[in-house]
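Data deposition worksheet. Section B asks for the primary sequence of the deposited chain exactly as it was used as input, without tags or linkers unless they were present during the calculation. Section C holds the resulting structure in token form. Section D is free text for depositor observations; keep each observation to a single sentence. Incomplete worksheets are returned to the depositor.
Section A, Depositor: J.P.
Section B:
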Amino acid sequence: MKKIVIAFDGTNYSSGAMAFAVGLNKLSPILLAGSFLPQIYLSSSWSYAVGGAGLYNPLLEDFNAEAIAEHVRRFEKTCNSEGIEWRVHQYPYDLAIPEIRKETRFADLLLVGGETFYRHYGMERPNEYLRMALQEAECPVMVVPEEFPFPDRTVLAYDGSEDSVYAIRQFALLFPELSKMPATLVHAASKDHSGLPEKDYILELVSRHYPDLTVKTLESTTKKQLGESLKGHPSSLLVCGAFGRTDISMMFRRSFAAGAIIDHQFPIFIAHRS
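Section C:
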């Protein structure tokens, strides 16, 4: 049984993240820990917020304890009706990112709604707090939109990097049931790699975990071509390496992973080694 943490912030409740947890539990029973994070008072928030760049300070009155309590009841009701073993973790302080780091240290997966997570904070997309959660999580993260069909196909983003291989392997180890779905290993050609990097090695690994595998090489790293390659497959799940780290390619950092989150198209699994 896997332990999955689902993060809700302030008064925002992600129905999409909850629906995904329900779908996972149907495949294999999980322990679902609902982490109900408070509204953030940024002036006392963790200094990692880069001096509050691009963010504003919400009033403490924005905090709505009654709404959070209702979301806790909603979470418990859904878990009980779906037969999900659950726990509730609540935090009275506004240090959201350190609490996420602690939660993920003791979890197999962090599940978060990409459209709802601290959606009022910052103009960038993904916003500062969602990007920090992706970077600081000590376990893999699944970011989901609010409306989507449960996946029946995986897209494995491979750029030849260690992180992309790590994510592909971690997804297979965490979700062997989902790894049995049709999978496409997507690689973008570049000046350095016209073919599949380390072809024999990656195929030896991936074909062991993804029995229904297709390999696809794109001639361009543009977001447009990536989007076109996924047309006709609305029930896809994307698997990517590190998010926002200096050692990941421009394609997957800005066009692939971030683009998928911004457009709220598919669930996206992100993992990094440290």
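Section D:
DSSP finds nine helices and ten strands in the chain.
The domain at 153-270 is CATH 3.40.50.620 (Rossmann fold).
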